[in-house]
Specification:
single chain; 413 residues; alpha+beta; five-stranded mixed β-sheet; three-stranded antiparallel β-sheet; 16 helices; 9% strand
């Protein structure tokens, strides 16, 4: 790579449309200490091992002061305490188990599969809205409203409140990237994050209290009233968990659907295959997750002991960045990693993580994306990109196009 910091290059929006050449350079040295402090891990087997290593912490409170400042995590937020995503056992296990009870197996095993008809209905309604148009922004017209509508219904958040929480969610998602700029600019960014957290926490606390008094058949009601073997969540834990589910429940799926349509529109033969063979949807989405994942990297891991990784000793207390998208293109694990092969065998990608922090929303994201891409390819006639590359979001962690301008000839019924 050039003499510039590899991490700064990855975070540079100029590389957002195609970060994969940077990752390929990084993989030549599986573990690199960046000049800003963190250790970057870019190869598949090393990332996979670290995702299962109990000596690697997800708790931001274990970050050293330098790493915490770089990530904007110097202080705990009293409005939104750490979610289980940023905790270690046993706290992680208790909160994750409580959150999963109303979401899926073993307590509600058919929650996601029973939503198939409802998801298909939302998709049909959104695509019907394209009628009479020949230019679309697939993000604003489809890839964003679809998963937002789904997560609102699942949680019990009023869909009409979307304009309110959209701004807070965007701010918090952007906050996954390190703060940067002058000290004054960094403080301004932190203050913006604090306000967004406080506003979202106050909004969700009100909804949780409503559900506690008058429960409904939704996840907020379950969080507010359910008791697991280890008790129940505290009010702050309920709010923090609800915020995580609301944001993670749509931000990543927006990018996954958009990345999928971008991949298809760049390869008309592939688009025709999915249109003619809808049974390919499941393996197609798995290959999409490997090829162009919505979560590119995990920036917040800390070593609790000295760890040897591919011949490099990473000291206790170091900041680890796991480059999932790079590991997904590691040729030692995936032959021809830069080719999109829908029928790729043994496609055990890293895109939903692994180990105790495996994304429990993965079944919903998979089903949403399979239905979305199958129906879009079936019903859009003559679709083509109006701009390539499209404009991307600045976010390096949750990477995806901000807009996807598309020209279509019409709609099939």
């Amino acid at each position: 790579m050039t003499s510039a910091s590899p991490l700064r290059q990855i975070l540079d929006p100029a590389h957002r449309a195609d970060p994969y050449p940077l990752y390929a350079e990084l993989r030549k040295t599986p573990v690199v200490r960046d000049g800003t402090g963190p250790y970057l891990v870019s190869t598949y087997w090393e990332i996979q091992e670290l995702l299962h290593d109990p000596r690697v912490s997800s708790d931001a409170r274990n970050l050293n002061p330098e790493a915490a400042a770089f990530l904007g995590q110097e202080e705990e937020d009293p409005n939104l305490p750490p979610t289980f995503l940023r905790l270690d056992p046993p706290d992680h296990d208790r909160l994750r188990d409580l959150a999963m009870r109303p979401f899926g197996p073993p307590h509600t095993p058919r929650r996601i599969s029973d939503m198939r008809g409802e998801l298909a209905g939302i998709v049909t309604q959104l695509i019907d809205g394209f009628r009479g148009r020949d230019h679309l922004d697939l993000v604003d017209s489809f890839a964003y409203p679809f998963p937002v509508t789904v997560i609102c219904r699942l949680l019990g958040v009023p869909r009409e409140d979307e304009p309110r929480f959209h701004v807070w969610a965007d701010t918090l998602a952007a906050g996954l990237d390190p703060v940067h700029g002058t000290p004054e600019e960094r403080e301004a960014q932190r203050e913006t994050l604090r306000r967004a957290r406080a506003d979202l926490a106050a909004y969700l606390a009100g909804l949780v209290e409503e559900r506690r008094r008058s429960p409904r058949d939704d996840m907020l009601s379950a969080l507010a009233t359910d008791h697991g073997p280890d008790g129940r969540m505290s009010p702050l834990e309920m709010v923090s968990t609800a915020a995580l589910l609301l944001i993670a429940g749509h931000e990543t799926t927006v990018n996954l659907i958009t990345n999928g349509m971008l991949t298809l529109l760049r390869d008309p033969g592939l688009l025709r295959r999915l249109r003619d063979e809808p049974a390919l949807a499941a393996p197609f989405v798995e290959e999409l997750l490997r090829f162009d994942p919505p979560v590119q990297l995990l920036p917040q891991r800390t070593t609790l002991a000295d760890i040897d990784i591919a011949g490099t000793t990473v000291p206790k207390g170091a900041s680890l960045w796991l480059l999932l998208a790079s590991g997904n293109r590691d040729p030692r694990r995936f032959p021809e990693p830069d080719r999109f092969l829908p029928e790729r065998p043994d496609n055990q990608h890293l895109s939903f993580g692994s180990g105790i922090h495996t994304c429990f929303g993965a079944p919903l994201a998979r089903l949403e994306t399979q239905i979305a891409l199958t129906e879009l390819t079936r019903r859009l006639t003559g679709p083509r990109l109006a701009e390539d590359p499209p404009p991307y979001r600045r976010n390096a962690v949750l990477r995806g196009p901000r807009h996807l301008p598309v020209v279509i000839e019409g709609l099939a019924d």
